[in-house]
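Section 3.1: Structural characterization of target chains.
Under the original work plan, the team committed to producing a structural model for every single-chain target entering the pipeline before any wet-lab resources were allocated. The record below documents one such target. The sequence was received from the expression subgroup and is listed exactly as submitted; it comprises 83 residues.
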Amino acid sequence: MPFQRKVEKKAQPTVEVPSLYGSHASMINEDYDDLGDGVVWLTDEKGSYATTRDRLDTGLADPKRYDSSRVIETPNTRAVIKK
């Protein structure tokens, strides 16, 4: 039997979010609370993004959160639904 190396798996970082699709008030980054004109800075499993306050807690998906041109700042981060 050939020699097999044991690979030590690192713990995957997680971010707790209320849902996987929408933007929520609990995701607001307190360092950049209000950028003017109702724009807020939020943090999710992919990194940070800006959206408007009227998109928070609506139950609908936020197009700014799932913009395909958005750069992933924190790769290998998993979103966990908090209850």
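The CA atoms of residues 38 and 53 lie 5 Å apart.
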